[in-house]
Every structure is written in C-alpha cells, then in structure tokens.
Amino acid sequence: MVIDRNTSLVMEKVDDTKEEFNKAAGLSTYSTSTSTVASYISIFENFWSQLELYEKLRANKKMEREFINLAAHELRTPAQAILGYTELAMMEEEGYKDTIDSEKAGFISAAYRNAQRLQRLIKDILDVTRIESNTLKLNKERFDLVEKINDAIIHLRVVNTKMTTNNPEIVFNKPDTALFVNADKTRLYEVVINLLNNAINATKNNGKIIVSTKVVKCTDDHTRTNNNDYDNNNENKMCIVFSIKDNGTGIDPEIQPRLFTKFATKSESGLGLGLYISKNIIEAHGGRIWGENNKDEIGDTFAFSLNI
Hints:
This protein is α+β, with helices and mostly antiparallel strands and 308 residues long.
C-alpha cells in the first residue's frame, strides 16, 4: 500500500485461513523513505500500464474480429451472386456449344473458378473468426460416414473433370458395412473435401489417391490425444480412422512443424487456413488429426480419428 506517494506499508500474508490478524500476517514494513516509496510506486505504475495495454489489446482484437466477420458476411452476398450468374452462363454455354465462341467459354469458366475460390476464401475467414471467438457450433446427428466420404469423392471427380485438367485417380477402399458416427455432418464433409483437395493439388494426372476407413481401439497410438497418455475411460471404446494417402509432392519439411497452424502453406493459390480449420473441427468432435510423409514411398498421408 502506498499513501500520498510518500508513505508505504508492506505486509506479508502468511496464512489467510487464520481468523486472527496477527496469525494471518507475517513481516510488515512501514517506510517514509523516498527511494523505498518510489520503488513501490514504480512497481504499481508498471502493473497499471500493463493492465491498460491489455485492455486496449483485447478491445482491438474484438474490433478486428467484428470487422472481419462483418466484411466476410458482406462479401458473401455478391460472391454468391457472381457464382450464380456464371453457373447460368455455363449452362447456356452447354446448350449452345456450336454457337458460343471458345474464347468466351474460357472467360466464363475462369470467372466461375475464381468465384468458387472467392466463396471458399470468405467461408474460411468466417470459420477462423468463429474458432478464435469460441463460437464454432456443431449440429451433431447420427449418420453414415462412409456415405459422406463417397459423396465427397463423387463431387470432386465431377468438379475436377469440368474445371481442371488435373484428375488423379481416386481409389476408395470402401468398407462392406456402414460406419455410423454422432457428429456434425456438414463440418465433417468440409474436412473430407479439404483433405481430398489438398491431395489432388499435390498430385498430377498420373497420380493416385487412396482413401480408407478402418475401426480400431481408441487406445491405439494414432488415436491418442498426445504421445504420452490417453483417456483410460476409452480403453474399451472403438474409433473410426479416416485416411487419405497420395503419391504427390509430400509435406515440405519447413511446413511440417506448423502444419496445422494458420497460414502454413507455400501454395500461391490459398491462405493456408484449411488444415487449421479442419484441426479445430476434428478436435471439437473430441478427435485427432495428423499428417506425415509416407515412409517407404513418395507422397504423404493425412488422417483423422473419431469415437464411434
């Protein structure tokens, strides 16, 4: 305690459970020394300055999140309109192939690709904002994960055939039975699409992507939340492990340590938010996601696990 900037009283608290003051307090120092009082004033002012800076930083972060959220919402409407109009133009192009100029068709296709890219970017920004403000919500329901994976593969095959010349072979080792999970169907579909897109971008036309699912004990090494421990309550529970293996360029050693962090990418076509968002979605489900280069082959494997 500092009084009128010229007197200080410092009391040591020994045991705050004691009811009697003299037993709760220890050594006490009273001083009117200018240097002693000044030192305590300096300490307090430092604390106050830090608190003010912290409050300003917190306010700035809140304003930044609100601005990004508002900007992304405002951008989503015109982006959706552009996407819709280019889709109509492409449908018209399909109906009049013989009369539409090939250069014009190329312009329409390029506009559509870029509109899709813009829409994905806006969605990623909104998702990051939700994650960092702890407002990412899951709408869980029981569904067949195998069916959603198959839908994602079919969708990307159609899109890639129409929009790109890069069409690696995608092989789905589809299990004979359904694998049901209690999860957010839309969010998991988003994760699967993201991992598949990454694999497609990393491979070429002669590349191969192998998609697999398997059921394992939740205590297996690849389903633990860290390298040293696991939840003993899960000892008899089972997990689904979904994996995507490709023979592409593999994970850059420079990126590996920060693989699932924001902006971890060397690609010029994205911001490096996909894996960061995927990680948070999987962990929100109580699962785990990881990626590693293939040991005996070129390429890499990404996978995630979920409780059944």
